[in-house]
Structures are given as structure tokens and as C-alpha cells.
Specification:
Blueprint: E1 2-10, H1 16-30, H2 34-54, E2 61-69, E3 72-79, H3 100-107, E4 110-115, E5 120-127, E6 139-142
Parallel strand pairs: 1-6
Antiparallel strand pairs: 1-2, 2-3, 3-5, 4-5
Helix pairs in contact: 1-2, 2-3
């Protein structure tokens, strides 16, 4: 069986921790724990941070989709700046950033990006532990609603 969770956050750095929290809750609900969960959370953090940092579309939302099929987990992060595809580059020792995609490439079984009609999507795929086979099948799309709003 396949489970999918999709949520959106505003394109702002202050919402990256919210994406991480939502990702963590989804992984827990699916039985993905331990090192597998840690890796997925790190990948989500890097991809969402890249999306909110580099997207030039004002008032944009970033869409995060997690799909679990057996022990294969697919993380997809999409933003509406579809013409600016990410690329790996060698960061110098003095650079503060630019290592996120290298980290994604090192930790994921596979990663890539694609242009969709209105968004670009950066994805990472990895194998999680067998415990993830017991999960709640569901497809959910939720907008982010700020606290008190």
C-alpha cells in the first residue's frame, strides 16, 4: 500500500521548522523512526530551506509531499519558481552555504528535479527500515494555518 501526505507552507525561512515538525509527525504516524527518520528530516530541512531561500515568486507557497510505498520513501518539495532548477556545485571552504544539495545527494538513494506546468519539484528517494511497512494509508492535502489564525 501507498501512503501520501501533502502540506504547504508560506515561502519564508521562519516556516522551515514547521515543515520539519509536520514531516516528523507524518514519519512517526507511518512508523518511520530512528536513523531513517533522522535522514528524511535532514533532507526535508535542506530541500525546504532551498525552496524558501531561492524562490523568487512573491507570496509563494512551498508544497511538501511525502509518499511511502513499502520501504521506499519519496520526498518532494515544489515551489512556483519553475525556471530556476537547482544544480550541484562545489562550495569553497569560505562559503557559508551551497552544500545542501551535496548533502541530499550523499544521503538519498537518488535525487533530482523536474519542471511541472506551474512549479519545479526537487525530490529525494530513499529506503527506510522495514518497520515503515505498518502505516495508515491516506492521502491528505492541508494548507498551513498559522497559530491563532
Amino acid at each position: 500500500m501507498t501512503s501520501t501526505e501533502t502540506f504547504r507552507i508560506p515561502r519564508h525561512k521562519m516556516h522551515v521548522p514547521i515543515a520539519r515538525q509536520h514531516t516528523g509527525k507524518t514519519l512517526t504516524a507511518w512508523g518511520v523512526t530512528g536513523e531513517s527518520a533522522d535522514v528524511v528530516l535532514l533532507l526535508a530541512n535542506e530541500l525546504v530551506t532551498n525552496a524558501v531561500t531561492h524562490c523568487r515568486t512573491s507570496s509563494a507557497q512551498v508544497r511538501v509531499t511525502l509518499t511511502l510505498h513499502g520501504t521506499e520513501l519519496l520526498l518532494e518539495v515544489a515551489d512556483p519558481d519553475r525556471d530556476r532548477l537547482p544544480r550541484l556545485h562545489a562550495s569553497g571552504a569560505d562559503e557559508e552555504g551551497g552544500r545542501g544539495l551535496a548533502l541530499v545527494a550523499a544521503l538519498a538513494d537518488a535525487w533530482g528535479c523536474r519542471q511541472e506546468p506551474y512549479v519545479k519539484c526537487v525530490w529525494a528517494r530513499l529506503t527506510v527500515t522495514e518497520e515503515a511497512a505498518a502505516h495508515v494509508p491516506a492521502t491528505v492535502v492541508r494548507p498551513y494555518v498559522p497559530a491563532g489564525g
